[in-house]
Amino acid sequence: MSTALLRTAEELHARVRHGRRAVVLTMGALHEGHATLVRAAREIAGPDGEVVVTVFVNPLQFGAGEDLDRYPRTLDADLKIAEQAGADAVFAPSADEVYPGGQPQVRVTAGPMGTVLEGASRPGHFDGVLTVVAKLLHLTRPDVALFGQKDAQQLAVIRRMVRDLNFGIEIVGVPTVREPDGLAMSSRNRYLSADERRTALALSRALFAGRDRHAAQEALRARAREVPSTRARAEALSAIGESRAAADAHAVAKAVPNAAAAVRAAARQVLDDAVHHDPPLALDYLALVDPSDFTEIDDDFTGEAVLAVAARVGTTRLIDNLPLTFGSFGAAS
What we know:
Largest sheet: 6 strands, parallel
Number of helices: 11
Order of helices and strands: EHEHEHEHHHEHEHHHHEEEE
Distance between the termini: 57 Å
Number of strands: 10
Strand order of the largest sheet: 1-4-3-2-5-6
């Protein structure tokens, strides 16, 4: 197939549409993570639908001192990657096309969710993200839009905007794609030196440590729920030699700290160690949050959660996260 390069919304709107249009919004510098999004969009759109990839480096979401000027612009390579992944068109508008008359006076604000974690570290960032996403969704007029779960907070605020403002567009999150060594794929990884990359692996290793602690605790909780809670049942099990195992399971489950605190502690240990690497890791935040509002979960939380981390290695700021489910083994009987 041949992927069309479009520069104006007029060109995009002139295309004859058949079936669903799925859009992947990017700032370019495409890599395998973006290609995964495009392939997922192709599957959703189907053979009769259309996949559009946008490439636009949005100045509104870069704060003072951030890397707008050095952000990679690789449109020719982006076009090839989009084509190989199954895109029908790449929409690469100019700043004047997206913001005619200069930066917009009216913008979309992210509300409380946009002031924590990434929003606290990068004030105004999510207002810039939502404003350009709203603009690009209006310009591309999709039925469905796909975003990577690596930017979990961004995905959450976009979902909230689409719901609160009645966009009528389906938002799909696609799991994070990782390098063989575990580092989450990002356009900013190219800034890392070999030594910095080794330090940067602490982000994913911290998340994996938290995930492993979570899995162990959930298994203990499940085992404790399977153990008899009445004297009669315990006496019956003792006849086949399982009373000690039952008692051990109960004791261990009760002795382990609450699940959320244990997950945070396991991840924090890896990050604390990385502070002493050469070069060192400078932690911005480690958080275990409810993805509906990005507030920290409490000790009794059940349901979907996100373990998120942000840190700087050298001059490069990186983020990563993993989804976790608390209480996945069901309620105690």
